[in-house]
Structures are given as C-alpha cells and as structure tokens.
C-alpha cells in the first residue's frame, strides 16, 4: 500500500481523509485505485491532477514508478505558460 | 538521470557564441507570421462585438457578400456543433455563438481579394444585438446580483449556492492555523488587487491557412506551439489531427499568449468556404481586445511572524477572473503564493471567476506574480513593523532541499538561499538612498515544466549535425540546442544546424512554454545525440572488426576504449559520415519523452527607485535580478530572460492595466494607452546567474524564462512603500494613484 | 477606387507601384514592393517596428501614406548592410545578444543608425530617449543599449 496525500478540497470527496492508502506500483495504478476506492474523486481525476512522488512533480506520466515508502501528493493539475 | 555537470568540464556549454539565426534577424530576412504569403491568397478580417455582453439576434451578410472582391463570410454556423470542454471554449472564443461575451468577441469573418476590401465588407455585415448587463470586475462578478455569463459552466469543485460565475473552487493547506497565528508576535491582514496585463508581444497574431473540401489543410502561423495549434484547429473545425500540417514562422514574442489560437481556425474556415488560402493578421487593438491577457486578481492575505522573523502561519484567499471562460490560473496562484517559505500552518482558498472580458491566456509564470505581489508585500510589511532586514528574514524562512513545500511535497535541490545570499552581497543592497528614494526586495518561484517532447539529430555526409526540434525559437534557443549538441558530439558549434520542424516531421511537441524549451528539447537533443553516437561507434567498431562496446566517443572521434580493444587510429565524425552510405546507411538519433525531471527556479530581485512627489511618477534607478539557472547553457540569453522578465514585471507594477469603461468596453486598446516600458523608463538591469544544478537534466539545466516576472511586482511596490511611506495594495502604481497616496499621507 | 501610381527609390533602387490612397507606406513596402523587413506592431506609430527613413528622416512607415513616397528616397532594414558586410550595429546586435524574438530588431536598427548619423557620441540617456519610440518586449533594452554604445564606439574609432 502507498500513502497518498490529498489536497484539502479533495478530502470531502474521500470520506474526509487527508491521507488514503491504495495499492499501486505506478502513478496510473494509484490514480485508478483511488477512484475505485473513492468514486467521489472521479470528476476531479477526470478534470486532471498532477502527482508528486518523492518531491518530483509528475504532470501526466502514468508509468512513473511508485514505491510503498514513496511520499505521494495529489496536486492541482499543473500547466505551463 | 546522471548529473554530468559536477564531474564534467564543458567545452561549449557556458560560452556565448553568435546565435545561428542572428544574420536573418538583423537583416530583415527572417520570416515572421505576417511575412508569409501564398499564390491566390485572400485576406481575412474579423467583425467584433462592440458590446461587453449581448445576445446575437441576427447576422445578415447579404450586402457584404455583394461587394466586389468578397469571396466568403463565415459565422458560427460554419463551425461544427457538439464540442465539449475546452474544445468548446476555444470554438466559442474564436467565433461567438448565441452571445457576444466581451468587447471584441468575434461574431463573423470575411475573406476578400484585398485587406481593404475585407475591412470595407465588415462594415456591411448587419448584426442585431440585444445588449445584456455585463460585469468586468472579479469581486463584482461574484456578487449575488451579478449578471450570469453562462449557466452550468462550474465544475465539480464549486459548492452549491455559489454564484454561477464562480466556475472552480479550491482549498488546500495543512496544520493548525489558529495555533500558528497564536504563536506569532505580529499578525497582519490585508487585501490586495492586481489588474490584468497583456503579454504585449510586438508581433500581432498572424496566419495563412488553406483547407480543402477533402479535409486536408496547411497552416503557417506565428505560435509558441504548432502541435497545440493543430489540436485546437482540428478540434474546432471537426478535422482529423494529422490532416492539418502546421508550420511555425519565426515568432515575434509570445510570453504564453501564443500557446492558443484566436484567428487560425477562422482563416481555415474561410479557406474551406472560399477554396483559396486565407491570410489573417490581427491589428494591435484586436490583440488587446480579443487575444488573452492574464487574469486580474483580488486577494486577502493573513500572515503571522515572531519577533525574530519566523513566519508562524499564513492564509490566503485568491479570487481571479479569467474572462468569459473558465481557466484563470488560480490553481497555480494558490500553490505558489507561499511556496518560498517553510511554513507549518498554511491554508489557501481559490476562486476561478468568469467576467465579460477576453478569455485569459497564459502569461509568463501564469498565476504566480499576483500571489507573489500580495504575499511578498505583506512579508515586507511584517519586516518593516518588526524592524527586521528583508533579506535576512527571507533567509530565515527560505525553503531548501528537503523542506516541505506549502503545497505538500518536499523540495528537491533548489537555489532560493543562494539567490538571497548573492543579492545580499551585491553592492546595490548597501548603496545609500537619497530623498524620495526607496528600495524593495522580493523573491519568486516558478516550478518549470517538462512536457511532451520529440527531437531528432541526423549526421550530414560531411560530419556536420542537423538537429530537428519542435519548440519554436522565441529567444535564442537554437543557440542553446546547438551548444548542447556540439557538447554531446564534440563537434564545433558552427557545425550544428538547428531546425524547427513542422507538425508533419516530428512527433507531438508541447509549445515553447513553461520555461521548458532549453530543458526538455535540450534533454531530447542530448539523448538523441547519444543514440547517434552509439551508431557512429558501431560503424567504427565494424570497420575495425571489434565489438561496439570496445569503442568510446571522445571530442568528435571514435576511439578504441583501451589497449585491450586493439590499436586503431581514431575515426572522426566526418570520416565515419563520409562512408555511411556504404556502411549501413544514414546515421541519425531520436528521442522522445515527457521528461519529469524539471527543476524549479527561484529568484530574488532588488529595485531602487525614486518617486517624484509632484507627479507621483516612479523612476527605476537600479535593478538587480539574481536567479538560479541550474546551468546556463548560453549565459547571454539567460541574462536576457532575467532582464526581460524583470521589465515586464516592472510594467505590470507601474503602468500596465486593462481599463474598462462603464459600458464594458476596453478604453486603452493601443500601445499609446496600454503603456509598456520603453527604453527611457529604465536603467541597465544587472544580473547574477546562480547555478544550483538540476539533477533531472544531463547538464543541470533549469528553465529560466518565467521566474523573472514574479518578484518585480512586490519588489517595486515595496520600494514605493520605502520611498513614500505609504503601503500601496493595488497595482499598477500609476502616477495618479501614487500621488493620491502621497497626498492622503497628510 | 482608382489606384495611384508611385515612383520612388527604395534602398537605392528605383521602384514603382500602384497603391490605394488609403494604403500606408508600410503596406506598400511589404505588399507591393515585397520588402517585409519593416514590421507592423501597432499601426498607430507607437511601437517603431516599422521604422524606415524617408529622405534621411526617421519615420514610422505605418504613419506615412504609400502615395507620399513619390519622388522620395526610402531606406529600410534590407538596405542596411553593404553587400555581405553587415553594418556595425547589425554585427553588435548579434554579438551582444541584443535580440530575443527579433521582431523589433529591424526598426531599432534603423532608428539607432539614424541616431548615430546625427550624433556619433550619444550618452546612454540620449540613446534611451531616442529609442523610446521603439518597443521591445523581450530584452528589457539592456543589451540593446549596450550594443548601440559598442557600435557607436567602433564607428567613432573607425572614422
């Protein structure tokens, strides 16, 4: 299981939890597992989010590897300018 | 990825050679957007709404079509229906549907045999409007009685009961705010406002489009990203993506504003109808009225600090309008507002609000300068009231590697502290100030970007190197690519030619945006070069009859890797290239990825200025930019990014603003009234390049383009505070506003 | 509307064109003569990207009618280099990285050349005021001013 930190606006969609634990070895698997466990997150995920794994921001690479001890944050979808 | 720069001595990187396209650009030869023409080409012109908000009851183009030379008129009826999401937003923005949503919104377009005829024809199109109530101010647009721009535009995040103009809502943070503020010796609360500023590129949008009844088309345009243009145009017109080939011209500035489309789908729609190529060039007033400026913002900030300068807690509410569509960059504003500092208890609330203004577009570090203005202004005020030095206080709170960012994760290696120390050590910081003079300090951050990237290198028959990238060269990036390719291959800089490939030649590339070109296209160029070098080594190995692994590449030569590999004279890239046709065919290398290893860039600015007490006019006396570049590939163009960002920020702080009349019309749609900084407004802009290598790039590069516009807004405001003794909380600090503040001081 | 026949000299060559009375010199140079080095940044004389000289005088070609060029001498960026030898200003702009996107560069070079012909040894302040009618959005002007100063010095030493 990987601990995933949610921004506070998302917590209401995940039973009020700040950190949720889901299974996954990649960013994509984590995102899918999050929606499976908390269907309320689906619209937020569809709109798009970015993920931070151990301090590195990952805008959209679903294949990026995640370890069980990785520090994972869901962030607002980021874009360039 | 291995960081080579700690161990590697560079031969080319860090030097300042002439840019490869220099000759073209100083002789007038370089072809920009409006410089392209086609045989049989028509000229397009766009009719724009004079109303900020109006129902379009009827459009009658009969008289226009009867004018000699007019070949086609298009309205929204000529575009496909059924689009959703951002595709619909873009379609609605390039051609209004049921309502005109802002002053300048396109409602119809004409193609004619000359530009003069096309403009004459616009006057003959009859449009019947029903004028509606409008709103252009972000706070007023959130009020209960505000006219609704569009029902149902809000997404999942907006709690029930909010005004329909609020289309996104966000909250983020951590810790215990109450406890954090209780631990402070001083807590301040203040509201701040910034006005919308335009990117102000000197080259108006321009394109030539050709689209046939077979659904195949070509487009030449000035853009930061031609694959974005392809995606948007084909979505808006209902075409298949790869049936439209987009070729970028040289680009006369973009700063984020040329990452989207305004006229390109219209030119293609006219072309499809007229069966001839159509050229559209925006006028300056069209650029200001109808292409995207950035958001305006209204913000409430609260911060607490201990007597010795430790920030104990911070919270902010950020309300931003992005015009008549969702998309104000409030997500980035909330994420980065307090990101310079190590704060345990922090909270952000953000609102994305629609108004009757043009659809905002990205502008250099989109969303970051507004938050920085509010937060760095308040930090300055806290320091002032507690008698603390602004740089020492920033050093006390500055984030570094391992600090938990206010947006969640821990920072990788970053250079904020290094920029603060270099700024403090610079003589400007201790230069005595005269009467009516003030000094301001501020720091800023941009997290940078990777993005989809594809690049190719190909070896010429004479051993020179051709690099093909997909990020238009907006500020000298051909030089950076050539330097990195020269370094990777070990060939002279002049032996590298860098081409910007069209959409038919490479895989998808995101635009030159997010400060990503030197990082991402540079990384792809280096990796593509490595692949080609592998092939060059293999050819040498075959010739010598040894294993490819026993060959190394050094300074442009293949060499046996050691005594065991055998003794052979080194083979140059030119020697291998001369034989490549008979040794296995052309040699090239390719690389594609969406690289994640972009490292953010921090900067710290110091500005000294003088305020004329008679007029309220601020004159910049001295300006220093210190910023982390990771590794400066071509230092002159890195300095140029620092200087250009700083001056755009100075303009936003002192003069630039969108001024709307009570009728909702833009009052200042020309450069005389939308006042960007001119040469006589400014001193030299001093720079210090700090290099804290980014582990995510083979040479340590961090993007540098955007950070530089973030500190100037608060730095200038802090300097004006220092000069006049009054804290100004609304930008721009125009002479009348400053004068009023001085008079009000009593 | 009937067109006006104009005979003029552009960069030393005799040129003829037919233009609408409403067309600007900038339109005529770009669309009738085929010289696209002068750029339209504003059309209102505020940005200087269309700078050319008309009988030696610096003008915004977007504020001059095409018909007004009759019998006059026009110099554009295309006429600045001598053969393949760049003018010192052109060379110094490349050396100093005084351009980023390059759209303002032709106008600024024409304006700077006009300045140095009037005043071979301008102060930094004089340069900044002379060039105040030429907007550059990329550079913050620092490297532009340095390039002009360096070129002026080289030209003084050479004369």
Detailed description of the structure:
- The complex is a heterotrimer of chains A (81), B (746) and C (159).
- In chain A, strands 2-1-5-3-4 form a 5-stranded mixed beta sheet.
- The model of chain A has no long low-confidence stretch (mean pLDDT 90).
- Chain A has helices spanning 8-11, 27-37, 42-47; strands at residues 2-5, 19-22, 49-53, 56-58, 72-76.
- By secondary structure, chain A is an alpha+beta fold.
- Chain A contains 3 helices and 5 strands.
- The N and C termini of chain A lie far apart (35 Å).
- In chain A, 40% of the residues are buried.
- Helices cover 27% and strands 23% of the residues of chain B.
- Chain B has 19 helices and 26 strands.
- In chain B, helix 10 (330-336) runs parallel beside helix 11, helix 12 (390-397) packs antiparallel against helix 13 (416-425) and helix 14 (477-489) runs parallel beside helix 15.
- The N and C termini of chain B lie far apart (61 Å).
- By secondary structure, chain C is an alpha+beta fold.
- Chain C is built from 5 helices and 5 strands.
- Chain C has helices at residues 25-33, 88-95, 105-118, 124-130, 142-158; strands spanning 4-10, 13-19, 51-54, 57-60, 73-75.
- Chain C has a 5-stranded mixed beta sheet with strand order 2-1-5-3-4, with helices on both faces.
- In chain C, a hairpin with a 2-residue loop joins strand 3 and strand 4 (57-60).
- In chain C, helix 2 crosses helix 5.
- The relative contact order of chain C is 0.15.
- Chains in contact: A-B, B-C.
- The interface between B and C is large, with 60 and 60 residues.
């Amino acid at each position: 299981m990987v601990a995933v930190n949610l921004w506070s606006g998302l917590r209401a969609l995940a039973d009020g939890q700040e950190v949720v634990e889901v299974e996954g070895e990649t960013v994509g698997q984590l995102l899918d597992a999050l929606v499976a466990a908390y269907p309320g997150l689906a619209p937020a995920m569809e709109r798009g989010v970015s993920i931070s794994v151990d301090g590195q921001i990952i805008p959209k690479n679903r294949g990026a590897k995640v370890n069980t001890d990785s520090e994972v944050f869901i962030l607002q979808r980021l874009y360039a300018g | 990825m291995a960081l080579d720069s700690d161990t590697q001595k560079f031969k080319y990187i860090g030097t300042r050679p002439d840019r490869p396209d220099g000759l073209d650009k100083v002789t007038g030869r370089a072809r920009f957007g409006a410089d392209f023409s086609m045989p049989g080409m028509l000229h397009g012109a766009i009719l724009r709404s004079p109303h900020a908000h109006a129902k379009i009851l009827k459009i009658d183009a009969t008289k226009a079509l009867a004018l000699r030379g007019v070949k086609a008129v298009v309205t929204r009826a000529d575009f496909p229906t059924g689009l959703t999401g951002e595709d619909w937003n873009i379609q609605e923005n390039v051609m209004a549907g049921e309502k005109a949503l802002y002053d300048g919104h396109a409602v119809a377009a004409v193609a004619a045999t000359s530009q003069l005829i096309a403009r004459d024809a616009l006057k003959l199109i009859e449009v019947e409007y029903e004028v509606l109530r409008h709103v252009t101010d972000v706070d007023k647009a959130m009020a209960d009685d505000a006219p609704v721009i569009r029902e149902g535009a809000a997404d999942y995040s907006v709690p029930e009961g909010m005004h329909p103009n609020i289309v996104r809502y966000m909250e983020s943070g951590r810790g215990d705010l109450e406890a954090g503020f209780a631990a402070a010796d001083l807590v301040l609360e203040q509201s701040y406002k910034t006005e919308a500023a335009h990117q102000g590129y000197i080259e108006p949008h321009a394109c030539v489009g050709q689209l046939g009844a077979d659904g195949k088309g070509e487009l030449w345009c000035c853009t930061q990203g031609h694959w974005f243009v392809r995606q948007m145009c084909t979505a808006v017109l209902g075409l298949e993506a790869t049936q439209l080939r987009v070729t970028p011209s040289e680009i006369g500035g973009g700063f984020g504003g040329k990452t989207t489309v305004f006229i390109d789908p219209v030119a293609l729609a006219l072309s499809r109808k007229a069966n001839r190529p159509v050229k559209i060039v925006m006028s300056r007033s069209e650029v200001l009225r109808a292409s995207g400026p950035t958001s305006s913002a209204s913000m409430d900030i609260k911060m607490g600090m201990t007597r010795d300068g430790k920030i104990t807690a911070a919270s902010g509410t950020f309300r931003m309008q992005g015009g008549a569509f969702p998309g104000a960059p409030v997500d980035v504003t909330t994420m980065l507002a307090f990101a310079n500092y190590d704060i345990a208890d922090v909270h952000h609330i953000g609102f994305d609000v629609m108004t009757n203004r043009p659809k905002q577009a990205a502008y250099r570090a989109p969303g970051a300068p507004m938050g920085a203005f509010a937060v760095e202004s308040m930090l300055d005020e806290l320091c002032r009231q507690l008698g603390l030095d602004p740089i020492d206080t920033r050093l006390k709170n500055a984030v570094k590697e391992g600090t938990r960012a206010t947006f969640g994760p821990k920072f990788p290696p970053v250079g904020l502290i290094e920029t603060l120390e270099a700024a403090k050590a610079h003589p400007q910081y201790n230069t005595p100030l005269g009467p009516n003079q003030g000094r301001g300090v501020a720091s800023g951050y941009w997290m940078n970007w990777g993005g989809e990237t594809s690049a190719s290198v190909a070896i010429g028959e004479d051993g020179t190197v051709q690099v093909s990238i997909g990020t238009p060269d907006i500020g000298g990036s051909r030089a950076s690519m050539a330097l990195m390719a020269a370094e990777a291959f070990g060939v002279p800089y002049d032996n590298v030619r860098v081409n910007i490939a069209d959409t038919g030649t490479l895989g998808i590339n995101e635009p030159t945006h997010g400060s990503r070109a030197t990082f991402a296209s540079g990384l792809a160029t280096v990796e593509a070069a490595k692949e080609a070098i592998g092939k060059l080594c293999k050819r040498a190995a075959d010739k010598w009859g040894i294993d490819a692994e026993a060959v190394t590449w050094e300074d442009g030569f293949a060499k046996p890797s050691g005594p065991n590999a055998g003794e052979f004279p080194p083979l140059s890239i030119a020697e291998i290239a001369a034989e490549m046709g008979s040794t296995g065919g052309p040699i090239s290398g390719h690389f594609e990825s969406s690289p994640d290893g972009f490292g953010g860039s921090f900067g710290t600015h110091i500005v000294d200025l003088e305020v004329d007490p008679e007029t309220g006019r601020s004159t910049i006396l001295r300006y220093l930019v210190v910023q982390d570049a990771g590794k400066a590939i071509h230092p002159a163009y890195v300095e140029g990014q620092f200087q250009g960002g700083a001056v755009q920020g100075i303009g936003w702080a002192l003069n630039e603003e969108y001024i709307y009349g009570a009728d909702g019309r833009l009052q200042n749609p020309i450069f005389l009234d939308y006042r960007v900084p001119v040469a006589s407004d400014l001193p030299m802009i001093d720079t210090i390049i700090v290099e804290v290598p980014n582990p995510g790039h083979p040479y340590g590069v961090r993007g540098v383009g955007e950070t530089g516009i973030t500190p100037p807004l608060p730095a200038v405001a802090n300097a004006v505070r220092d000069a006049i003794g009054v804290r100004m909380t609304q930008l721009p600090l125009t002479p009348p506003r400053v004068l009023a503040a001085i008079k009000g001081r009593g | 509307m009937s067109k006006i026949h104009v005979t003029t000299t552009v960069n030393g060559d005799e040129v003829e064109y037919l233009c609408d009375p409403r067309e600007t010199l900038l339109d005529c140079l770009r669309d009738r003569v085929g010289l696209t080095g002068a750029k339209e940044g504003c059309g209102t004389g505020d940005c200087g990207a269309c700078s050319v000289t008309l009988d030696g005088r610096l003008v915004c070609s977007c504020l001059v009618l095409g018909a007004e060029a009759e019998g006059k001498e026009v110099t554009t960026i295309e006429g600045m280099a001598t053969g393949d030898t760049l003018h010192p200003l052109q060379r110094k702009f490349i050396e100093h990285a005084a351009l980023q996107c390059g759209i303002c560069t032709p106008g600024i070079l024409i304006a700077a050349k006009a300045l140095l012909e009037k005043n071979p040894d301008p102060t930094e302040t004089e340069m900044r005021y002379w060039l105040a009618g030429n907007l550059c959005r990329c550079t913050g002007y620092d490297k532009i001013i340095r390039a002009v100063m360096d070129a002026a010095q080289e030209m003084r030493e050479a004369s």
